[in-house]
Each structure stands twice: as structure tokens, then as C-alpha cells.
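Question thread 4412

I'm putting together a teaching handout and wanted feedback from people who do this every day. The idea is simple: show students a protein as raw sequence, then show them the C-alpha cells that encode its fold, then repeat with a second protein so they can compare. Below is the first pair exactly as I plan to print it.
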Amino acid sequence: MIQVENLSKIYKVSRREAGMKSAWKNLFSRQYEEVKAIQNLSFSVKKGEMVGYIGPNGAGKSSTIKILSGILTPEEGTCIINGRIPWKERKAHVKDIGVVFGQRSQLWWDVPVIDSFELLKDIYQISKEQYNNSLEELVNCLSLSTILKTPTRQLSLGQRMRCEIAASLLHNPSILFLDEPTIGLDAVSKLAVRDFIKKRNEVHKTTVILTTHDMQDIEALTSRIMLIGRGRLLLDGTLDNLKEQVGQSNNNLDEVLAALYKKYKIQ
């Protein structure tokens, strides 16, 4: 379903010294530094898998998700998802994927949630029958009935995230990319989101790639974990495999992750 081979992404970042003199000089002669966000990244994901994609800030997680979503184009390498290259066949590709960025919204801020859903229905060209079936299922599973008529700006963070997840699944995609979906949520909201994602995978066989710093999300949802650091894939296995790497099978997950970061010198 997802096949990634030797993927690389480089950003050019402007750099300058502090002070007015450097600022003035920068207007005429800007200096750039290349940042290798992803380096020779290769992996594959089968249909129906739930994969935890973890690593420290700046490791390349979000860049990977954006390439897989067709938002970014890599400098090198190939990526085939359901027989398509995401950034070359984006219009057809987005009909097969759902994306939730924990710190970005796909809902219109000042209109009721149901209006955002109706707009997404038209954007994705969802048939009326499929839309009604999907909406009914998502509203029931995510307990959205009481907030559909509420403007997005008036929702709590937990309510908004449930609506974001529903919005990403209205067109019934086969792949769901989740980038920090539980960031800032309280315990009750986290449990609700985790339970829904797990049921979605069981019922619809939706493939899920989850990036998060919350190891409880990883433990609750994923059976396979990929650890990335400085743009490179460092480990690919189960949670037990990660624990074995640092010999901390009895420690809590945050301590295991911190030990892995130290071992691979990625933070």
C-alpha cells in the first residue's frame, strides 16, 4: 500500500547574525543553510497496519507526512501509495487519504461545524448517500450531535479534535495520517480519540500512520513503531524491540524513549 525508497528532503533556511548591521547586509546578500530534514528514508506499510512514527522535534516526522500526503515534493527518492506518486497525482491521491494535523485546522473558524462538513463534501465530491452514511457513523462514534451547529471557534480543544478527525474521514479514505492528534487534550478526550481510531481500524481496515510524542498513544494504538532521528530511520519493530535496545523492559515508556534518544544521539 505504501512503499517509500531512498526519500530525501532538504530545506534552505536563511541565517544571519544578530544586530542592525547584519540585518542590513542580509537585505542584499542573504545567506542560506541547507537542512536535511529527511535522508535516504525507506520503509513500507501494508494495508490495515497501524504504525507509530516517533522521534524528537525536528527529526523529520511532519516532513515525511507532508510528502506522503502530496503537500511536499522530495529532492530524491520515490514514494508509491496505492499505485500513485502523491505529489504528481495529488487530486486522485487525496481521495484515498485523510490527514489530521494537531496544530492545524481544516474546519472553517467562524461557521458551524456542519457547514464545514458540507463544504468538504463538495470539495471531495462525495455522493449524497455516502456522505449521509459517513456522517451518521462519525457523529455517533465521536459523539458530535450536540456540537454540529456550533462555530468551530467556540469549541473546546477536545471537541474540535473530534470534529477534525470526523472531517478527515467523511470521504472514507483507506489511509489516515495523524500528526499529534491528541496534543493538549485532557485524559477523557484522549481516551475517546484512541478508542475511535482503534475501532476505525478494526471495522474499516483503515491504515493508520501516527506521529506523536505521547507514548501512551503509541502503546494503545500501534503494534509497529518506526523511530526516526536526524531524518534517518533508526529502528523499525515492536515496542518490545525498542525496550530491548536500551535494556529497560520494566521502565515507563517515556524513559525508554529518552534512553533511545540518548543512545542514538538524536537529542
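The second pair follows. I'd like the answer to focus on this one:
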Amino acid sequence: MTRTLLPHHPVSPIREEDLYAFAHLVPPSGVRLLALLGVHDGLRLLNVWPGVQIVVPKGPCNNAGGARRWAQIVAIVGAPATLKLADKLGGECLDVPTLDDLRKERRNSVIRAQFDQLTASAPHGQGLSKAAAVLELNLLHAPITWRQLEIIIDRPVLKPLQPILF
């Protein structure tokens, strides 16, 4: 049996609305990348190469390795964004963050909202007990343990005082 990844799955692509909802979880390297390339192109690079460390080529034809890397970056973000990268970071190492904390908190917020809906009284919810709701969530979000779900549900949500703007 194959499963389709839910939009809030820990390895599913990050969307623009995720960046704004969980901006406090974007590390400084991600903020710099998004500021340099813009949200659309920066997000494409974050989703295609999470955790990758590359040397940004200075131009399209400096050497064979640089030309290959240039073509790869152009294929992801396009020529204008690649020129921006080369202008600001040419010859430097670029660390593309994984945004694991953002992905986990996105999943956790969905789990909390689903739990609230499952345990709310009718007509707004299903009126399930905590144990029954956790079982349903366990089946829906597998692979995840019962204990992990309880920790997610019981942990308070910490919101930043002021969101980071890109």
C-alpha cells in the first residue's frame, strides 16, 4: 500500500504560508537566502536542496565544475536568481538549511488542531475521548508513536512576540 504525503508531513515541501506562520523557526541562514532571492525562488532552493552545502559559482563558465553547478542552480531558481546568488555569494559556501524545526512544528500544529476537532463536543467535533482521538491520529500520521502524539498534544504552543519578516 502506498500513501500520499499529507501537506503537513515532515518531509513534504514547505509552502509560502508555512514560512509566514512559522517564521520564528527559520534560521538566520534561511532568512538571508530568502531575503537575497525573494520568497518564491528562495523557497524553491530550500525545498529542492535542504541541508546541501555548495560553493556558489562566480559565473556560468568559470570552470567545468562551476558551469555544472551553475546549470543546476539555474534549473532550480532560474537565471535571474542565480545571477543574484553569484553577485552576492560567488565563490562562497552556501549552506541551505533543512528547516526541520519548521517542518516539525507545522506537523505538530496540524495534529493539535485535529485533536481539538476530534475531542470537541458535537456539533463542532466528534466528542472522542483523548485515548480514542490519539488512536485516530496515530493511524492518520503513521509512522509516529502514541507517546510522541501525547507529547505534541500536551505541549503548550509558544508563539514569538514579533514574527520575522522576509
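Top answer:
Good format. For the second protein you could add a caption like this: The chain has two domains: 7-26+99-159, 27-95. The radius of gyration is 20 Å.
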